[in-house]
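R.M. (postdoc): so does anyone remember the format we settled on? I'll just put the structure tokens first.
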């Protein structure tokens, strides 16, 4: 039985789009992940404020411990993980006194740029003593949402998230081939394809507009 983590769906709704489709793997790997200097900074989607920075530069992933600084999330336990997180982005969304923390990874497939977004957790306000929000539980399954990302200019970026409903229908009917698991009881659908298979899929269908929600999330740079 799949135990899907629901927070990422809520965060996608914060960003102004319908819930996408969850993937067990990101499209980016430590070999294919890229960075883009235009992405860092403070942004707004017209309602919420976002701060995007490279993981190694992110203060939100550190905590004071005497005179030292310890990371909430390590850069990795092997060369591959270190290489990946050194180019990944932390995304912080502030809302109602809490900070929603996500990790984003960019990769290029043909002439398109895609971002994988994974929820790291929620950091509550000072009055919240129920934990940092970074703790994972046995019911947590870290998953990714994938979006095509386009820079209109240095101050505007658009995100088009994969259309979960369309993908479920096409894959279930055999019109598109991609590994998945489905739980009828909880009505959950999880892509289980490898990063390589995801990249092959996006290489083939990435320019098909039916693959994305019609609603586009627009971020504008603050200041």
């Amino acid at each position: 039985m799949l135990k899907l983590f629901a927070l990422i769906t809520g965060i996608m709704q914060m960003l102004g789009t319908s819930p996408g489709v969850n993937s067990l793997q990101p499209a980016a790997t430590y070999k294919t992940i890229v960075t883009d200097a235009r992405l860092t900074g403070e942004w707004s989607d017209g309602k919420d404020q976002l701060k995007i920075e490279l993981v190694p530069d992110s203060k939100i992933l550190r905590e004071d411990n005497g005179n030292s600084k310890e990371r909430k999330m390590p850069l990795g336990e092997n060369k591959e993980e270190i290489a990946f997180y050194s180019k990944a982005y932390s995304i912080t969304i502030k809302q109602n006194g809490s900070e929603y923390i996500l990790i984003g990874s960019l990769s290029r497939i043909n002439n398109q740029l895609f971002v994988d977004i994974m929820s790291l957790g929620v950091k509550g306000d000072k009055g919240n003593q129920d934990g940092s929000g970074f703790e994972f539980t046995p019911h947590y399954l870290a998953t990714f949402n994938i979006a095509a990302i386009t820079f209109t200019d240095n101050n505007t970026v658009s995100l088009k998230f994969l259309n979960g409903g369309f993908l479920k229908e096409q894959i279930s009917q055999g019109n598109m081939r991609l590994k998945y698991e489905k739980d009828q009881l909880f009505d959950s659908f999880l892509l289980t394809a490898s990063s390589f298979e995801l990249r092959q899929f996006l290489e083939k269908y990435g320019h098909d507009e039916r693959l994305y929600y019609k609603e586009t999330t627009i971020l504008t740079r603050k200041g």
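R.M.: ...and that's the designed sequence above, right after the tokens. Also worth knowing: Residues 7-221 form one domain. The chain has a mean pLDDT of 81.
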